[in-house]
Design a protein that fits this description.
This protein is α/β, with parallel strands linked by helices. The protein has two domains: about 5-45, no CATH class; about 65-160, Dna Topoisomerase Vi A Subunit, Chain: A, domain 2 (3-Layer(aba) Sandwich), CATH 3.40.1360.10. About 40% of the residues lie in helices and about 15% in strands. The strands form two sheets. The chain has a four-stranded parallel β-sheet with strand order 4-3-5-6, covered by helices on one side. It has a two-stranded antiparallel ribbon with strand order 1-2. The longest helix is centred in the first third of the chain and has 17 residues, at about 25-45.
């Protein structure tokens, strides 16, 4: 139970439920789960191009010639890529930072995959960097740092818009989302 509670989002009660479930489950199921967890670290590598966590490097997205090499979407974590892909609107390449600048958590620029991003830009193929960091203090700090770093390179640098989610009634929108929606408004 102590080990299961180390997973993010798993508290003591959920860890207890999982432990008892594993004890009641068929031994084969428990062995399959344990084997999969052991193999997870052995079978996953970091893509030498985009820094995503994948089973082969370069990853399929970096090898896909139909993707636009001129656009690179910079995300904080590998799990951000499937979320963007589900939208179906982005057809460029990605770059994973593996975090965001957060001095309180001990995460500085040196901990992020920024050097790998700068090496990619040396090819001259990239025309636009889309900063898709989280809309929080750490994500905004990281985006601002990257925008200042990239400005001398003459690349178009954009940031995902923030604001009110589609389908949300204005009266129920939180104060920050409403303020961001007003800041990020565009002409029709």
């Amino acid at each position: 139970m102590a080990q299961l509670s180390r997973f993010p989002g798993i508290g003591e009660r959920t860890a207890t439920r999982l432990a008892y479930w594993l004890l009641r489950a068929d031994p084969e199921v428990t062995e399959q789960i344990a084997t999969a967890m052991l193999e997870l670290r052995r079978g996953v590598v970091e893509c030498e191009v985009c820094c995503d966590l994948v089973t082969e490097s370069p990853c399929p997205r970096c090898r896909d010639e139909s993707r636009d090499v001129g656009q690179v979407c910079v995300v904080e974590q590998p799990q951000d890529i499937p979320a963007i892909e589900r939208g179906g609107a982005f057809h460029g390449r990605y770059h994973v930072l593996h975090g965001a600048i957060s001095p309180l958590d001990g995460v500085s620029v040196e901990h992020l995959r920024i050097d790998a991003l700068l090496r990619r830009l040396g090819s001259g193929q990239v025309q636009e960097i889309i900063l898709a960091t989280d809309p929080d203090v750490e994500g905004d700090t990281t985006a601002l740092y990257l925008a200042r770093l990239l400005k001398p390179l003459g690349l178009r640098t954009t940031r995902l818009a923030h604001g009110i989610a589609v389908g949300t009634e204005i009266e129920y929108a939180d104060k920050l989302s409403l303020a961001r929606a007003l800041q990020n408004r565009r002409e029709l």
